[in-house]
């Protein structure tokens, strides 16, 4: 019943359902008294639509952190005259007693309640409302559904101390559930008498008693003519159990598997037991004996075993008792048994740990109800993806995504699943993945980061995100990714490696994106977070990747975004700039990133007065002579000064250094650069450079701008010639050539 991650486009039905659920008020409902959802009176919806609305709602609440659950959602389905429900699947904390109570008038045919721990015995009474129509029922993991709250009488004070005591309900049975055929009682709490509970059921077809200890299962023979599926996972078996099972001759699916790590089992499988099953259960198409220890050797001699092509024919079976099968089994569960490594296994599908196919079969078979087994299977898949090449990539990805969605709060699955995703999404598999599938990966990765502050999960998730094209592939979750990463970087105690990856991701996310994105991220506290990281690194006197990436991220986020530039200045960014320059005089990358950022600040007219101090101007002038990172540091320092000069002599509010002296040093610097230099810089727009052309106040600024354009269009013509034309650079250059104030060498370069 698990919803598998899929790779085909969503159906129109699914898209409409999703839209309605996210916009209930604007579509199916209105708000009564500003709080209760009510269905519009003229709406009638058949079960095909209502079932989907309920099941998708549960899925959204569980897997989409942005989706808000509604208190009164289930009341929309209280009247069968306007909304019909037939088959619904409810999970975990999402469902409470009052939700089931709200839909009690519905004629449900199928009701799956999986791990609904909030349901109490009140819901048992509600189940009775469905008794005349219910065919399939699952109460798997509903550990409190047989408990009712008993209010002890006596004084008021006592009631405050111990208002409720949980009491086991012993008198409930499935009396009156005349149509019930499929029943799952997995992980039922101890103390409930299963035999009494089930006795009224006339003809059970499928029964799941996973994780329940029953010493006597003789009562199962009352359905020997109807039972086709029996699951006794993790039940400690005995000879008596085996004898009873052998009498259930109609069985097509038998599962006696166990988790070999969970507890001590006395029972061991023997050749005789397997022979007994093969002889008596002639309709068997599926058998699961995973986790069992074989007491004796059931395999045929090894010489014979290794011979010939792998075969699923029973006559050639490497497992001797299965030679008696009439035809190969559809499914054989051999996970964590030695038998799965044999050559000839008479089944179309085998779960085991021998190869990728067996491991994927195991994940598929056990994900929904056995996370403890699934996490070990995913761990095996992780090894396959890491060491060999996955041949069924699409299936592997879909299974891991499904497991991570289904077990959002299971630490083992989150750790192994996120690690497997890292290897399954790396570049060698890139071509085989659709946009939709890659988006599903991103969703579950972000879910993991949200739910788990645990270091391994966080690291795996961050590493997996690095396999995507950033920012393009993360654009659809842009806010959320940034919030999660900033959250990681703002934690007081930090893992070095996670910090490094998170800063790298933050930097990539603000590179080459629209200004509104940058402004939004700035408002989330991005600038402040980066400056804090820089502050910490300065205090430790380390200039590592985190330090360099943080400055690079600030350079990116301030590009043509005045608000972020202003934040940089307000949070003492200039003080950190000077301290970094002094502490790390030799770090060229660092100097380039810092000056690139200051170039962005200098482009904002209102902020330039804050750069007009003797100290800053001296620092920028001295950096004109820097040979760090080719011409980049010198070029950026000259850019900052060009914008300052553009404000004219009257804005030069300092005595030292003199304006003319700085101008002279700027000319000297520009003349020293090689015009064919390859560049370490990326322009999205020439606008800040072009505005320095039509002016006569500062010929040196005009020259710097012309040099910058000339260098970029001659070294990277394909990229920058179209940009220059598009932004109207040609007429500006032509006009400048005619200007009397422009220097001759500037005009020649412009020409």
Automatic annotation (TrEMBL):
Family under the similarity heading: Belongs to the zyg-11 family.
Q: How does it assemble?
A: Interacts with the ELOC-ELOB/Elongin BC complex. Part of an E3 ubiquitin ligase complex including ZER1, CUL2 and Elongin BC.
GO CC, sorted alphabetically, is: Cul2-RING ubiquitin ligase complex
Q: Which domain of life is it from?
A: Eukaryota
A Pfam family that this protein carries is ZER1-like_2nd
- Indicate whether Acetylation appears among the record's keywords: yes
UniProt keyword list: Acetylation, Leucine-rich repeat, Repeat, Ubl conjugation pathway
Domain Protein zer-1 homolog-like C-terminal: from-to ranges: 404-751
Which species does this protein come from?
Ardeotis kori
> What gene is it encoded by?
Zer1
The record lists the lineage as: Eukaryota, Metazoa, Chordata, Craniata, Vertebrata
Listed name of the protein: Protein zer-1 homolog
Indicate the secretion signal residues: none
Which ranges carry the Zer-1-like leucine-rich repeats region domain?
Answer: 196-337
Alphabetical list of InterPro entries matching this protein: ARM-like, ARM-type_fold, Armadillo, LRR_dom_sf, LRR_Zer-1, ZER1-like_C, Zyg-11_UBL_adapter
